[in-house]
Amino acid sequence: MVTHDFEKRTRQLIDSLKGICAAYGLGNDGNEFKIITQVFLYKFLNDKFAFEAKKIRPDLAQGESWEQAIANLDADELEMLQLQMGPDTARLKPEHFIAYLFGRQNAPEFAKLFDDTLRDIAISNNDIFAVKTEGGAKVTLFDRVSEYITDTAKRDDFCRAIINKLVEFSFERIFTQKYDFYAALFEYLIKDYNKDSGGKYAEYYTPHAVAKIMAAILVPEAVRGMVSNVSCYDPSAGSGTLLMNLAHAIGEQRCAIFSQDISQKSSSLLRLNLILNNLVHSIPNIIQGNTLLHPYHREGKALKKFDYIVSNPPFKMDFSDFRNELDSKEHRERFFAGVPNIPKQAMDKMAIYQLFLQHIIHSLKTGGKAAVVVPTGFVTAQSGIDRKIREHLVNNKMLAGVVSMPSNIFATTGTNVTILFIDDANKEGVVLVDASNLGTKVKDGKNQKTLLSEAEEDHIIATFNGKVAVEDFSVVVSYDEIATKNYSLSAGQYFEVKIEYAGLSPAQFATKMQGFTGNLDKLFKESAGLEQEIRKQLAGLRYE
């Protein structure tokens, strides 16, 4: 009940911050999400500091104000307290606290004080909380948020409205909550900035069902708690939903997260997600940049190899500006199956997922595992890059299987999707699951969306992990069988064709079979008679 109350109050805080933005002309503004996420994060870090400080020094909670108690510490005591907090907590000074700003909100140029405070927190914590670009520049934690208000006369009031809202309640009692709480919180926080508004990078949030299935198959329940000291990578990370699910399955302190994404927005959302999910230690591995052209993560000069890779890459996108650069000797080993050509009529239909998929295969450690969302057409294409990639996976025996999902599992795209599971250690028994008939269709705004129930998700996971053949749902096939079926990964092509005889007695079944035999005999006799008649007519023609 306490958790539910806090989730409700946290949502109210988010809603009220959005209300303030709307009141000052920033509703649906491109900068609104920057303000909301940064202000929310400031509040979160402030209360996390309080939580950790009181845990280390319970005496700080005894007085009326923990903020004042910390302000009364001398410099050495404060430094010692900060050192004991560990790397996940921002290093704050008394003048950074929300209570400090709240007490000075009537000072002249309050917006400047507010912005200066956020910037000072960002700069003094840059080594831990900054995201890097592929060129090495650091993207700091906070901007000068009041400057998004174009009317300078309104900036002080805007910042006062924010600080008055932040001081109303504390996050402190939620820091003991588990992953699912923060996942729901994050989804609510970004829901209004997660719409397909026509931008190139609109898919910031992969559906829960897809993320859950990927994590549960890559890290089955039986091995949870046994996997440790592993690297997890997403070359098109978005806001990090897939990585968060994977890290949660492994254990946040048992893995290191690595990512790259070309979108600034995605990188800032991913950083927020890492902070919420106790993965601050991985923020230095978050890179904003072009993964295909400038892959950042390396070991020496060679590209880094990872234990686990997850990805929901963009399927089609215009990359004609650097297409020929990718199709060069430098990238030939990585893009072993080739670089897609530029379609003459529609450059934005270039199949960029083929490049991400090859990059993932190249970036996998020996014995590593990956799960990638691909268009369902990939599993049966009989020529081109798709076919070459499938041949590579089968011939090198590095395939776990596929799960073909229901249509409209993503509300923003009508493309049918399949999850491809790669496993370099799986040398026999490939699982092909056709889950396309599962789910319930619901309306999501103007779009139709298919939702899987928890039981359906668990059925997919148990079938795959148990390598179970289920009639008209799943098959387990050998690599040789796949090769003989033109490397098709479509489960339906391996299902047995069955004659329906349910409910028939043995005698009825025998009669039915006799009927089939009789019909066949009759057809053969008829065809033989027809053949004789044709021969006679031909002979007559020759005679004439």
From TrEMBL:
<keyword id="KW-0680">Restriction system</keyword>
<keyword id="KW-0489">Methyltransferase</keyword>
<keyword id="KW-0949">S-adenosyl-L-methionine</keyword>
<dbReference type="InterPro" id="IPR002052">
    <property type="entry name" value="DNA_methylase_N6_adenine_CS"/>
</dbReference>
<feature type="domain" description="DNA methylase adenine-specific">
    <location>
        <begin position="179"/>
        <end position="498"/>
    </location>
</feature>
<dbReference type="InterPro" id="IPR051537">
    <property type="entry name" value="DNA_Adenine_Mtase"/>
</dbReference>
<dbReference type="GO" id="GO:0008170">
    <property type="term" value="F:N-methyltransferase activity"/>
</dbReference>
<dbReference type="InterPro" id="IPR029063">
    <property type="entry name" value="SAM-dependent_MTases_sf"/>
</dbReference>
<dbReference type="InterPro" id="IPR003356">
    <property type="entry name" value="DNA_methylase_A-5"/>
</dbReference>
<keyword id="KW-0808">Transferase</keyword>
<dbReference type="Pfam" id="PF02384">
    <property type="entry name" value="N6_Mtase"/>
</dbReference>
<dbReference type="GO" id="GO:0003677">
    <property type="term" value="F:DNA binding"/>
</dbReference>
<comment type="similarity">
    <text>Belongs to the N(4)/N(6)-methyltransferase family.</text>
</comment>
<dbReference type="GO" id="GO:0009307">
    <property type="term" value="P:DNA restriction-modification system"/>
</dbReference>
<dbReference type="GO" id="GO:0032259">
    <property type="term" value="P:methylation"/>
</dbReference>
<protein>
    <recommendedName>
        <fullName>site-specific DNA-methyltransferase (adenine-specific)</fullName>
        <ecNumber>2.1.1.72</ecNumber>
    </recommendedName>
</protein>
<dbReference type="GO" id="GO:0009007">
    <property type="term" value="F:site-specific DNA-methyltransferase (adenine-specific) activity"/>
</dbReference>
